[in-house]
Amino acid sequence: MAYGGATLGPAAAAGNSPAMKQVKLDKESELRIEVNVNSSLRLRLLSGTAEIFGTEMPPENWLIFPPRMKFAIFTWYGATIEMQDNTETDYVADETPMISYVNVHAVLEGRRKRAKASAGDADASQGPRVIVVGPTDSGKSTLSRMLLSWAAKQGWKPTFVDLDIGQGSITLPGCIAATPIEMPIDPVEGIPLEMPLVYFFGHNTPTVNADLYRVLVKELAQILERQFSVNAESRAAGMVINTMGFIDGLGYDLLLHAIDTFQATVVLVLGQDKLCSMLKDALKQKQNVDVVKLQKSGGVVSRNSKFRAIARNQRIREYFYGLSNDLSPHSSIANFSDLAIYRIGGGPQAPASALPIGAQPVADPMRLVPVNINRDLLNLVLAVSFAKEQDQILSSNIAGFIWITDIDIPRKKITYLAPSAGELPSKFLLMGSLTWIET
Ligand SMILES: Nc1ncnc2c1ncn2[C@@H]1O[C@H](COP(=O)(O)OP(=O)(O)OP(=O)(O)O)[C@@H](O)[C@H]1O
Ligand SMILES: [Mg+2]
Fold first, then answer.
1. What pLDDT digit, counting tens, does each position of 171-194 carry?
2. pLDDT at residue 5 tops 70
3. Which fold has domain 328-430?
4. Ligand that comes closest to the CA of residue 169
5. pTM of the model
6. Is the C or the N end of the chain the one with fewer CB within 10 Å?
7. What residues flank ion ligand 2 with Cβ within 5 A?
């Protein structure tokens, strides 16, 4: 966790720092906090027990929350919090849906135990495959996180699958990804960026190329299926799948596609009756799928597009520099000829009727299009494919990202920032519309 360290007691936090205050929480209540946009927030658990989105707070250690973060400290039995008095907002709420959420966890826990006890039986040894769906800002990511942290606390290693290309809680926006959760998720630092399984879509909305999105979801599901077939422990722990808030039209089709592709067994619907009833209807033939409606927490904060853009930018900075500037990315120069950059899909579309019989339309969404290196690539974030050959690019996951910082046309040189020094794992790079401007 992002501990402030033992020296940062109230005395050290005094000086020019904001005044401190204590907040007493009754049992089953939560302290909802929005950190100031310009300054971080220091707080600690003084007495009792409390958790932040499913992860227990350490007693007495100071925690530092970055600007703009929104979160809640929930207590089952009562707690006292000591904190700086400089938040954007903070208030205590005693009405929360936490009991219903922890009841879901208890049901999942039972299913994991049954799966573990059925090792060897192909079907019964599969633990719950939970998918969390709902409109934008309904608390999907938060609920996913709580379910994962509670499971990890019990010693399971559930797989977290993030299908939300808008924000990226496992890796950068524009990607879908999966990673095992081995410990309750750190409330400040989030999920460690350790070798997740990542596929690059390249854009933060699926409408740009829905076919590609579907193909990548399928690739990811297939790899996980293979991993589960040889790993009884993660098979029994199951998965928690987080989705996008896009639930109408194409968004709804993509939800059904994800439920089907990952063979979800539990669909948790947050905060929308209509979506819940549509899904119940669509899935009524599938006897092993439970569709469960859950109340949205009154604490969930709506975030506008500007906030989301800032959060995406912040996420990219964090990838290269670390949450507290603790990483040292490396700038490298390559010849144009050393790199092969592609984008997927696109090209001018000819009407199908105008094409010779059997010909592919030019705008084939899965077409691999070589990209000419020019100044337009400046500030783009490119994904480094694990592909060894060009024909593997579409089905390959990615090793990481680089950020283009300079293009020298006369000398045919490209300067980029990478998380570490040394040669890139592959010369095949993927481009989408993901950009970053260092602020
Ligand atoms: N009980 C709570 N108290 C305070 N803040 C909360 C609470 N629950 C969630 N939040 C905050 O509200 C914001 C939105 O929640 P969350 O990200 O879970 O919603 P979402 O449905 O995943 O949104 P999106 O559709 O954008 O993916 C987040 O910043 C989250 O930390
Ligand atoms: Mg979310």
1. 999 999 999 999 999 999 999 877
2. no
3. Elongation Factor Tu (Ef-tu); domain 3 (2.40.30)
4. 2
5. 0.93
6. C
7. 140-141
Which atom of ligand 1 lies closest to the CA of 142?
18
DSSP-assigned letter for residue 296: P
- CATH T-level assignment (fold) for domain 98-294: Rossmann fold (3.40.50)
Instruction: Name residue 27's beta-bridge partners.
Output: none
Name beta bridge partners: 341.
Answer: 429
Residue 156 structure tokens: 């399971």
How many A from CA of 163 to the centre of ligand 2? 9
Residue whose tokens read 């696109």: 346
- Give the residue carrying structure tokens 């040894």: 125
**Architecture of the domain delimited by 10-95:** Sandwich (2.60)
Question: pLDDT by residue (tens digit) across 281-332?
Answer: 999 999 899 999 999 999 999 989 998 998 899 999 999 998 888 899 999 9
Residue spans of the domains in the chain: they are 10-95, 98-294, 328-430
Local confidence band at 8 (pLDDT 50, 70, 90 cut-offs): very low
Is any atom of ligand 1 closer than 6 Å to the C-beta of 142? yes
Specify the residue with its C-alpha closest to ligand 1, atom 3. Answer: 299
The number of C-alpha atoms within 13 Å of 177 and in the hemisphere containing its C-beta is: 27
